[in-house]
Amino acid sequence: MIEYSSTKIFDGYSTAFRQWRAKHSHCQYIHGYAMKFKVTFIGNLDELNWVCDFGSFKRNGIKEHMSYMFDHTTVVAKDDPNLMEFKKLSNKNLIQLRVVEGVGCEKFATYVYNYINSIIYKETKGRVKVQTVECFEGGTNNSAIYKPLRAFKTVNQRILTNNKIN
Predict the structure, then answer these.
(1) By C-alpha distance, which of 14, 35, 13, 15 is closest to 136?
(2) pTM of the full predicted structure?
(3) What structural domains and CATH numbers belong to the chain?
(4) How far apart are CA 34 and CA 32, in angstroms?
(5) CA atoms of 127 and 48, how far apart (whole Å)
(6) The pLDDT of residue 156
(7) 45-61: buried (b, 16+ CB within 10 Å) or exposed (e) per residue?
């Protein structure tokens, strides 16, 4: 039975993106936010009485990867019809391009959930998992929360299977 949760805030990221399908909105244009992510971990306590050792994020690469993805970057959906233009800008060292499945708070929360959960679950041998990720567009009242609806055991079995394949 899981009885504990702990929360870590990852912030200080300046990220530019656009939602190219939002033709009715100014969000179709490149714009940026100071992004912040609130990650909630659940699990049983370890021998130090911690759910998650936040100090491990430097050692296991989570901290570095979050900066790589979201700090002073331009994040573009892989199906953006102007992806080649963004790649040209990247090739000229005008932007730090990151291409992902989709953009926006909801998609960023999902990305962060999947990335961090795969590392933490494996590292703790299933003792800890990410429960939710909330992504904030800094300076606004907007956020999106990703929380998978699948059962704890099912999600973790999928993560273990995926890690064995890769």
Answers:
(1) 35
(2) 0.87
(3) 4-165 (3.30.479.10)
(4) 7
(5) 14
(6) 52
(7) eeeeebbbbeebbeebe
81, 39 in Cβ contact below 8 A? no
140-160 pLDDT per residue, tens:
788 999 998 864 454 455 445
Instruction: Return the structure tokens found at 22.
Output: 């939002």
Q: For the segment 64-92, what is each residue's pLDDT rounded down to a tens digit?
A: 999 999 999 999 999 999 999 999 999 99
- Tens of pLDDT along 41-68? 999 999 999 999 999 999 999 999 999 9
Q: What is the DSSP string of 81-139?
A: TTHHHHHHHHHTTSS-EEEES--SHHHHHHHHHHHHHHHHHHHTTTSEEEEEEEEEETT
What is the chain's alpha carbon radius of gyration, rounded to the nearest angstrom? 17
Distance CA 62, CA 110 (A): 15
Integer Cα distance of 166 and 158 in angstroms:
12
State the Cα–Cα distance between residues 156 and 44, nearest whole angstrom: 15
CA distances from 14 to 39, 65, 66, 111, 138 (A): 18, 14, 11, 17, 9
> What residue has token string 């992902």?
100
**Residue 16: both structure tokens together:** 């530019």
